Amino acid sequence: MKVGFIGGGNMAEAMIGGMLRQGFAAADIRVTEPNPDRRAALATRYGITVEAEAAATLAVDVLVLAVKPQVLRAVLTSLPRPAPETCVLSIAAGVRAGDIARWLNQHKAVVRAMPNTPALVGAGIAGLYALPDVSAEQQARAETVLKAVGETVWVADEALIDAVTAISGSGPAYVFLFIEALESAGRALGLDADAARTLALGTVYGSAALAVQDGSEPAELRARVTSKGGTTERGVAALEEHGVRAAVAAAAAAAAARARELGDQLGAE
Ligand SMILES: NC(=O)C1=CN([C@@H]2O[C@H](COP(=O)(O)OP(=O)(O)OC[C@H]3O[C@@H](n4cnc5c(N)ncnc54)[C@H](OP(=O)(O)O)[C@@H]3O)[C@@H](O)[C@H]2O)C=CC1
Ligand SMILES: O=C(O)[C@@H]1CCC=N1
Q1: C-alpha 67 – ligand 1 centre gap (Å)
Q2: Could you say which of 18, 119, 233, 262 would form a disulfide bridge with 124 (CB–CB 3.0 to 4.6 Å)?
Q3: What would be an example GO MF term here (predicted)?
Q4: The complex's ipTM?
Q5: How big is the chain by its Cα radius of gyration, in Å?
Q6: How far out from the chain centre does Cα 49 lie?
């Protein structure tokens, strides 16, 4: 299966690294990227073909759109229409599949997906949505590309991709913010910088691993940490008092609203 990338930035690199680890051949991956330093870096690191012009990148089974949402329309309207069997896989936040099909001169085989940066270490999670004209085989190809870097979840309603964006697309940033906060709390309590970082990171990593491997409800796992009359009870109560649930809900709502806004703005162009 041949895979092309329009845009060779962070997410493209995360996906390419994972695909090569999963046994994709470097000869089957091509990238179009305008920045010469970036082109040289990708070609050297991965042994793939990286070119300035998009034309050759188009002759592929899956064409991944990995540029910023704000430049997608200009990029696509300058391209010839891909072959009907080419599955276009957009990872651009907010931009709707129907608009992509329109900008590609009514190329209807469009899958919209939202991966996340843990893809870099093979631990990504991506939501996918396919326009009705995408064949089962094209869907399977798009899924194979994303499965190379983690798990996948299909949604039947495109609006839910904005929810996926708010939860798992942007979500790593919320978790990193929590790690920053836990680390600085550790320093405020007298730990040195190294110890605070190691304890904060180990706690988030270990807790996520336990939740995945144990399979119990998160609330049940939390209860197992919380001894009656103990320390956690006080700590969790303080988190609740300070509105941590409301803060997370507000973060997700704001991110989803921005995804919709991007879709409205960019689709109206
Ligand atoms: N980062 C994340 O966590 C996630 C990002 N996404 C989505 O992935 C997409 C890419 O994001 P990300 O990788 O972070 O962004 P980057 O800015 O790292 O990558 C975009 C790349 O596209 C290049 N580019 C710009 N114009 C063109 C063009 N005309 N043709 C080909 N390439 C071009 C840019 O080059 P230059 O820098 O020279 O302009 C840059 O290297 C976005 O649409 C984003 O919404 C999705 C999920 C998660
Ligand atoms: O912040 C963004 O717009 C992109 C989409 C999800 C993660 N990063």
Answers
A1: 4
A2: 119
A3: pyrroline-5-carboxylate reductase activity
A4: 0.97
A5: 21
A6: 23
Domains of the chain, CATH where assigned? 3-161 (3.40.50.720), 171-258 (1.10.3730.10)
Using a 10 angstrom Cβ sphere, with 0-12 exposed, 13-18 middle and 19 or more buried, the burial of residue 133 is: middle
- Tokens linked to 121: 């270490």
Inter-residue contact 269 to 73 (CB < 8 Å): yes
Query: Measured between alpha carbons, how far apart are the two ends of the chain, in Å?
Result: 34
Cα 161 from Cα 91, distance rounded (Å): 10
Which neighbouring-strand residues pair with 6? Answer: 32, 65
Interval 170-216: pLDDT, tens = 999 999 999 999 999 999 999 999 999 999 999 999 999 999 999 99
Task: State the pTM of this model.
Answer: 0.95
8 is in an annotated binding site: yes
Distance 184 CA to ligand 2 centre (A): 25
The answer to whether 67 is annotated as binding is yes
Amino acid sitting at position 227:
S
> Is the minimum distance from the CB of 49 to ligand 2 under 6 angstroms?
no
Number of C-alpha atoms within 13 angstroms, CB side, residue 156? 0
170 CA to centre of ligand 2 in angstroms: 5
Q: How far apart are the C-alpha atoms of 201 and 203, rounded to whole Å?
A: 5
